[in-house]
Design the sequence.
């Protein structure tokens, strides 16, 4: 068995007196497609932000691709990671957010090439060649010279996916990437993610309220509530035969709201 590409060991996350994650432990295997579901405020997005080092942890340890994320060797043991270590670890991970965060004054091609050129020192011709391959993959090669204001929400989100992929991460994080979109634009973004899941061996973590997509996309589903994993298993087991009452209640409400599971 390969070693997990992500090990989360007893992590704690507090905001002042509020404990969002309390002793959370979980592993993610290389190439695994993982869906994190649960009510708002249950800690799902916090996990992604911690993995992306957008939030720090209050306790515990995280290992990514065989290396400590928030700690590094020092003295006779581990010490808090410095910015250089964090920067190097971030290169292993890409993240696509709910809101696209594109540079409004730059064209699509520049939005995709900027990070590889700045952070990895890749020359413009090579960066543009890779960017065009990625834009073609997400169906937007013809929009390379457009600016974000000329794109639909679904197109902007597909550019954001291409931008994250341009850094060649081993792990991709998706945080509610369709929740800001009009319903008719959701499917075009989900289709790109389906393509990524089926055609690459990239490890992918998805936070979503699209239960039908989570069912089709994931190798494993984790149901969160109040900062803890209440239940986990294969999609068919979680969505058809959940064992925990809290999971059952959540899914009943999702179905009553008209969502497919």
Sequence:
């Amino acid at each position: 068995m390969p070693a997990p590409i992500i090990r989360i060991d007893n992590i704690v996350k507090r905001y002042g007196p509020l404990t969002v994650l309390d002793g959370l432990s979980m592993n993610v295997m290389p190439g695994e497609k993982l869906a994190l579901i649960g009510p708002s405020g249950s800690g799902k997005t916090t996990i992604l932000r911690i993995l992306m080092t957008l939030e720090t942890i209050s306790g515990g340890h995280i290992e990514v691709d065989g290396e400590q994320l928030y700690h590094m060797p020092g003295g006779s043991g581990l010490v808090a990671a410095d910015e250089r270590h964090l920067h190097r670890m971030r290169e292993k991970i890409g993240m696509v957010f709910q809101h696209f965060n594109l540079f409004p004054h730059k064209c699509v091609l520049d939005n995709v090439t900027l990070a590889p050129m700045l952070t990895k020192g890749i020359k413009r011709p090579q960066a543009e060649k890779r960017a065009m391959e990625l834009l073609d993959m997400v169906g937007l090669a013809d929009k390379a010279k457009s600016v974000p204001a000329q794109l639909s929400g679904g197109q902007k989100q597909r550019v954001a996916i291409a931008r994250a992929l341009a850094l060649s991460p081993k792990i991709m994080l998706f945080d509610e990437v369709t929740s800001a979109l009009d319903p008719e634009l959701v499917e075009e973004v989900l289709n790109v993610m389906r393509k990524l899941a089926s055609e690459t061996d990239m490890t992918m973590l998805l936070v979503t309220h699209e239960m039908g997509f989570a069912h089709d996309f994931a190798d494993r589903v984790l149901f969160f509530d109040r900062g803890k994993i209440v239940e986990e298993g294969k999609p068919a087991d979680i969505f058809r035969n959940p064992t925990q009452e809290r999971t059952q209640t959540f899914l009943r409400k999702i179905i009553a709201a008209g969502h497919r599971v």
